[in-house]
What we know:
Structural class: alpha/beta
Shape: elongated
Distance between the termini: 70 Å
Largest sheet: 5 strands, parallel
Number of helices: 9
Helix content: 25-40%
Mean pLDDT: 90
Amino acid sequence: xxxxxxxxxxxxxxxxxxxxxxxxxxxxxxxxxxxxxxxxxxxxxxxxxxxxxxxxxxxxxxxxxxxxxxxxxxxxxxxxxxxxxxxxxxxxxxxxxxxxxxxxxxxxxxxxxxxxxxxxxxxxxxxxxxxxxxxxxxxxxxxxxxxxxxxxxxxxxxxxxxxxxxxxxxxxxxxxxxxxxxxxxxxxxxxxxxxxxxxxxxxxxxxxxxxxxxxxxxxxxxxxxxxxxxxxxxxxxxxxxxxxxxxxxxxxxxxxxxxxxxxxxxxxxxxxxxxxxxxxxxxxxxxxxxxxxxxxxxxxxxxxxxxxxxxxxxxxxxxxxxxxxxxxxxxxxxxxxxxxxxxxxxxxxxxxxxxxxxxxxxxxxxxxxxxxxxxxxx
Length: 378
């Protein structure tokens, strides 16, 4: 049985509305002023409220604004009872959050029709809210599953840590690192175009494919071969318009040599040097379009020797494509300079780096997924 709250300072109107509605099988609760009405609304969470516009104390508009601001009453249908009938007055009522109006004197059939329509919309809103809660719970479970797939931080024989903040519950960034054998470590980060579930699924597919080494006959020690195989496997088509950028490297810890290739991805940044005066910065990137854009693309490898006291940063473009409070866009060069400064001041700790990026962002949330991996070789 639906519960309806009547808020009116006129006893005769209370009695009239109560009789009309109870005859239709509704349970009716009555309040004589705005303050009492808000208290009873919070207590009983009615499906529908009929509230007089002109009352001493809180008027109908103020009651409506208070009711609509309460998340627990967000689906309650609010009808203003009024003798005011101008367009300007109705605009005021709608701006305050009113869903419908009933004009005095009250006509019985009109009241019944508006109440029935209001209760239908209330039920629809409740159903949508329930489905939204179910969807959010399922997305939260999916996000937790994605996080469970990410590798744990590594402390020996190398130090690897990361920060990962999807712009939504699910994002298109994904990364992994694992030993191909006791001497060779594979590490990569990819960024799928778009956001949400449609971007997450290709990312997880790549992670599972590479981690299980399911592409038979592939030389996982050769980054360009890996990118070529992924490009052949994840070609865009009319059913799936998702492509992704990726940086993939293999580190030989015995020779201290890193071989790498990239496909449209921001460069990894290698910072070397034992003192601020001897700091060296190298961008590690090779030419290549994003994976999936075009068939028969050739990718190339490059390599570098890793000096002592070196750190490697691999990241997605969400780490630096940030709109600052003054409206300007933070650049890749700004980001790299920040990495160098952080390396000098607090050893490049990722939590400090993340806090700095958050302080720059002019919005409450990031527009894009943000991923940063730090690999410390010594």
